[in-house]
Structure formats: C-alpha cells, structure tokens
Design goal:
Largest sheet: 8 strands, mixed
Number of helices: 12
Shape: globular
Helix content: 40-55%
Order of helices and strands: EHEHHHHHEEHEEHEHHHEH
Structural class: alpha/beta
Number of strands: 8
Radius of gyration: 18 Å
Distance between the termini: 7 Å
C-alpha cells in the first residue's frame, strides 16, 4: 500500500507541524506523497526538498522584518505576508530552497487551494519550481482579509482550508491507502461559525460561491474531523494532533514563541516515531 502524509493548515500553528515532520525527515521516514493545505503546503514543500528546519529558520529570521510581513505590507500590497519577498526572494536569496532535490525527488507533493469563483477545492501537484508554481503555493496559504486573490494559470485562488481543510479523502482517492494525518487542533476541538463573516461578505462580495464556502466552513471542517476519526478507528490512518490548544495566533512576530511552538511539535514527533514507523512498515499488508 502507498503511504500518504496529510498536513492540515493553521497559519502559525504550521510551525508545530513542521516540528513533527522535521523529526520524521531526520529519522528517514518518507511517505510516497504529501498533500498540504495552507501552512501545511507552505511548510510541507520542504519535505520533498528534504530540508528539515528550513521552515522554522526563515520564520524566525524574518519574524520582525517589514519586508516579510506586517501592516505596512498589507496597506501597500494588499497582502499581510509580502508576496514577492516571501515567495520569490527568500527561497532564492536568503533561505535557499533546494530546487534540484525537490524536482528530482519522486515523492508526490500536492497543494490544496480554493477557487474563489466556484468555492470548490483545486488540487495542484507541484512537480517543479518556477514563478507560477510558487504562486500556487502562496495561494494555498493566502488567508481571506489578509491576502489578495491570487491569479495563476487561469484560476483565482485563496486559502485551501476554506474548501478542504483535511484532505484525507482526496489522498485516499489518489490511491494512498495508509495515511499519517497531522492536525493542528487537539482532540475534541470543533470549529464554530466565523465571527468575521460580515467583513468577509463586504471584502469578497464579488465571489458569492466563495462566501458560501466560508459561511459553511465550520460544517465542512467538523464533518472532516468525523471522517478522520472513522478512518482512524478502521486503521486506515494514524492521526497526530497536539495534546492541547497550540498557544500561538494566526499571526506572530515573536521568534521565541515560534521556536517554542516548533519544539513542541518536535517533542511530539519524537514520541510518535515508533508508531509512525510501524504504521508505514505495514504498507504491504
């Protein structure tokens, strides 16, 4: 059976996920495919390029750098996280993305975005690295209200988590029968209706189907939690989740806080190592 790794988003909670996946990489645990949503995609690409610690390094390095993120970027570019600097300068100049390894690695890497015109998920397999491919990556992590709509290859896109927050079902449809699923919320969490919907309706009024997806996001998310729980009971997936609510917001400029969250993920990753190895080692059964 083919091995999948499903990475939920969660903005800066993604650094917790990066801690878990870095431990997996450092111990030579490699899935056949990774599918990432939002921060799960933005940080998960480093698995295919085999670069543990890259995500935490550049987030801490640029935590308070106005070129990377902040109100100035939001007011001048429409994006809280500066699109050009973060996705088209950092990987080439300041925190080098190993493009050669990424492109030569046969591991499948899929990004989930949401098409704002249809409100439906778009699944894009990233096999190489160029400007457009990095725009797909950016689109998956572009949060409504904090980002402009990303236009790439005929699509208008935003945050993949709006339409498919935990794409386990998609991974299974693609033939990956044994999936490790990394969630960024603790057991028992249930999403509630967004209090920001009035602002969303004003800012995104041109995209009624996307607004519908936003309005129903909590229903979709909670249904997916049940799907994951059932798959876990049946032994189709191994779920790794934090023991308690990760103490970081969607946005943080505190490098110390980032490092603390990352180390939390590493500790849990080390705790799960034997279980992950055993789960994946049964892939031929």
């Amino acid at each position: 059976m083919k091995k999948g790794l499903v990475l939920e988003g969660g903005a800066m909670r993604g650094l917790w996920t990066a801690g878990v996946t870095d431990v997996m990489m450092e111990h030579g645990i490699w899935p056949d495919a990774v599918i990432g949503v939002s921060a799960g995609a933005a940080f998960g690409c480093n698995i295919k390029s085999r670069q543990p610690r890259r995500a935490i390094h550049y987030n801490m390095l640029f935590a308070r750098d106005a070129r990377y993120s902040g109100i100035k970027s939001l007011l001048t570019t429409g994006n809280y996280f500066n699109a050009h600097f973060g996705y088209h300068e950092v990987p080439y100049k300041y925190n080098i993305f190993d493009i050669k390894t990424f492109e030569e690695n046969p591991m499948s890497f899929t990004i989930v975005c949401t098409d704002v015109e249809t409100g439906q998920p778009v699944y894009h397999e990233m096999t190489h690295v160029d400007y457009d491919e990095l725009e797909w990556l950016r689109a998956s992590a572009s949060m409504p209200l904090l980002s402009k709509v990303v236009e790439v290859q005929g699509h208008k896109l935003l945050d993949g988590g709006v339409s498919d927050s935990i794409p386990l079902a998609y991974s299974e449809r693609m033939g990956y029968q044994r999936n490790v699923v990394i969630l960024t919320q603790p057991l028992g969490y249930r999403k509630t209706h967004s209090r920001l919907m009035p602002l969303m309706r004003l800012a995104l009024r041109k995209y009624p189907r996307f607004l519908k997806a936003l309005d129903e996001r909590h229903l979709m998310y909670n249904y997916q939690l049940e799907y994951v729980a059932n798959a876990e009971r049946l032994g189709r997936c191994l779920v790794i989740r934090p023991d308690f609510k990760i103490p970081i917001g969607h946005i943080s400029h505190d490098a110390g806080q980032m490092h603390f969250i990352y180390e939390m993920g590493r500790r849990l990753g080390e705790h799960y190592l034997d279980r992950i190895e055993a789960f994946y080692s049964n892939h031929d059964s």
